[in-house]
Design brief:
224 residues; mainly alpha; Four Helix Bundle (Hemerythrin (Met), subunit A); two-stranded antiparallel sheet; 71% helix; globular
Length: 224
């Protein structure tokens, strides 16, 4: 009999992790039996698709940003609860869940940023830079999971939930002031956020890549 491959250790130390875990377990215990993890994963993707559509419509009427925020809550509910529901019900499918969940995350990010770029609230270059930085960050995270057996759900105090909260806050700021003055020049607020997010993700990715490369080199050093 072949032994099952060891499952990666999950690291989740974000600011809201402990409270979120208690809430998700409480919600999972009250989900109807007919609802399973696949339904919730699909709901999470649907939430991001709705948010992307809301961003595109916000180019005509910024009030659609309220719809975007509501859609991000839908995304959080589906994306965060699917794995917890599987664990609470002891219906785990680790490889399937890992693959599908993170493929859905990639499409979700694409929906969000394409919709945002279509709105005119951000420049296409800034949106593209953030999308590329996110994909490179994700690739490094998945390779780290395979390489050292640790799946990092958060980096420092920041995880997916904190990023959603930040995005909701930015949407509310954009409603009041889509353009800001900085050093005597005017900038789209979303441009500053997108370029800052891309730079932050790039720095985290490079730092992590260097650390993991050095660690794996030392662990598999070829003497002589």
């Amino acid at each position: 009999m072949t032994e099952a491959a060891p499952q990666p250790k999950r690291e989740h130390n974000s600011l809201t992790a402990a409270a979120e875990k208690r809430l998700l377990i409480w919600l999972a215990g009250r989900m109807p039996a007919r609802v399973n993890s696949d339904h919730l994963t699909a709901l999470g993707l649907f939430g991001n698709a709705l948010a992307g559509a809301g961003y595109a419509l916000a180019g005509r009427d910024p009030a659609w940003l309220h719809f975007v925020n509501a859609s991000l809550v839908v995304n959080w509910f589906g994306d965060s609860l699917d794995g917890t529901l599987a664990r609470v019900r002891n219906r785990l499918r680790p490889r399937y869940g890992f693959y599908v969940d993170h493929l859905v995350d990639a499409f979700g990010a694409l929906f969000l940023l394409v919709g945002l770029a279509a709105s005119g609230l951000v420049s296409e270059r800034a949106a593209l830079a953030l999308l590329v930085a996110y994909f490179l960050f994700s690739i490094n995270m998945y390779l780290t999971t395979i390489g050292i057996g640790v799946f990092k759900i958060s980096y420092g105090l920041v995880g997916g939930t904190e990023l959603r909260i930040l995005l909701i806050a930015v949407n509310l700021f954009v409603l009041a002031r889509p353009v800001v003055a900085l050093a005597g020049r005017s900038f789209l607020l979303f441009d500053l956020v997108a370029w800052g997010g891309a730079a932050g993700l790039a720095l985290v990715t490079v730092r992590s890549a260097w650390q993991i490369t050095v660690r794996l080199y030392d662990e598999e050093r070829l003497d002589g």
